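Course assignment 3, question 2. Fill in each field.
Student: A.L.
Task: Predict the tertiary structure for the chain below.
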Amino acid sequence: MTSRRHFIRTTAPAIAALGLAPKAASLAFGAPRFAPPVAVFSKVYQELKLDFEQSAEVTAEAGLDGIDCAVRDGGEIVPAQAADKMPRYAEALRRHGARMLLLTTGIRGVSSAQAGEILRTAKQLAIQYYRLGYWSHRPEVPPATLLAEIRPSLKDLAAMNKELGVCGVYQNHSAPQNHSRRNAGCDLAELYEMVKDLDPEQIGVAFDLGHALIEHGDQWREHFERLKPHIRVVYVKDVQRNSGFVPFGQGEFARSGFFQLLARMNYRAPLSMHIEFDWAPPGGKTRPLLVQTLKESRRVLGQWLV
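Answer field:
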């Protein structure tokens, strides 16, 4: 029988070698270096009018970790029904091995409809991050004036988030091509001004590379570096900046180096996968095709993460 001393003497060099080469050790044991959970933005489920059980089944069939649930006017769950329906939806997901990982809301302040109720329910369901609603620029209001209106709302909301133990995130969103609307924070420099004085554990950024490429082109990276301390959630949708959102793998994400940047910053929050492209011909949207679309999008996303 091998003695304890002999075992230590013969295994110590191997243990030391693994300690000196964590990447090799990780690969040796089959552990992925960068594998955050992936949620699908559940807005796509509304296109087929899926109920909670059907949505949970599709999520599981597609091999996803969970959903980014739309809890807002016109969403899967409307604010007035959040306290009742969020737990029911979360339970349906749990039965299928998935979770409600993120929320997308219209909350812009402590007085937003059912804000406290939504966030307390989120906390009970162990959901840490929720997306805020938008402020839009108005022709008659100078940008600096709009920022002055936004900051007090964010400050008050940050205080409530701290008390509840949740974090609100504001997404950068490019302006429509017809310029019919331009939200605050489209310009990432403006978004930085919105959040720079706030604790990112209470109010952070939901970074959307697709919209950043449309809005800033190759300058997206310098904005990303400046915003990096504030980034808490990342939204994923492939894009060709001159033609809009495309199926995963047909745009610019693969050559962006974006996911390597996330890995280096030790990003561990869920990724929110958005299906913003036409995934079926008119009249051809079916549940099997949606599952196939989600599976393929998740497969390509997995390649980007390696």
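Instructor remarks: The first strand starts at residue 38 and ends at 41. The chain has one domain: 37-305.
Grade: pending
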